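thought: user wants a sequence for this fold. calling inverse folding tool.
action: design(structure=
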C-alpha cells in the first residue's frame, strides 16, 4: 500500500456517503461542498477551490482551480455528469503536474453511483514529458 492509499480510501468512502445521503441529480458544487463537510468532520484539512499555480520554464504563466485539496496531498475534482470523459482525466493530470502533487481523484456523482478514477503523476513522468 502506498502512502496515499489510506487518505484516498477515506476520501472515496466519504464520496459514497455523500451520494447515499443526497442521491443523484444535484449540481457539482452541492456534492463538492457536502464532501468537504464530511472530510472536515473527520478531522481532515480541506481547501475548496484551491488555486494551483502553473509554471513554464520557471515562470508563472497562469492558474487553475482544483475543486478540493485534501491534507495538502490529494487533488480532488468532482463532477455530476452522466459519465467521465477522457478529457476530465487529462485535466486532472495537468492539475497534478502544475501543482507538483502526485495523486488526484476524479469523483463523478453520477445518476446511479459514484464513479472514481485515480490519477497518479510521478515527478519522473512530469520531467520526462
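)
observation: tool returned 129 residues.
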Amino acid at each position: 500500500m502506498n502512502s496515499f492509499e489510506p487518505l484516498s480510501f477515506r476520501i472515496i468512502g466519504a464520496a459514497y456517503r455523500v451520494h447515499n445521503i443526497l442521491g443523484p441529480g444535484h449540481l457539482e458544487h452541492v456534492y463538492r461542498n457536502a464532501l468537504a463537510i464530511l472530510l472536515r468532520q473527520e478531522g481532515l484539512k480541506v481547501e475548496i477551490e484551491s488555486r494551483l499555480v502553473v509554471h513554464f520554464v520557471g515562470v508563472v504563466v497562469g492558474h487553475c482551480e482544483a475543486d478540493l485539496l485534501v491534507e495538502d496531498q490529494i487533488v480532488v475534482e468532482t463532477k455530476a455528469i452522466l459519465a467521465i470523459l477522457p478529457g476530465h482525466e487529462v485535466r486532472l493530470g495537468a492539475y497534478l503536474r502544475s501543482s507538483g502533487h502526485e495523486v488526484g481523484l476524479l469523483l463523478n456523482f453520477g445518476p446511479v453511483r459514484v464513479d472514481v478514477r485515480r490519477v497518479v503523476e510521478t515527478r519522473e513522468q512530469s520531467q520526462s514529458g
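thought: summarizing for user.
answer: Here is the designed sequence. Strands lie at 46-56, 59-70, 74-79, 103-109, 114-120.
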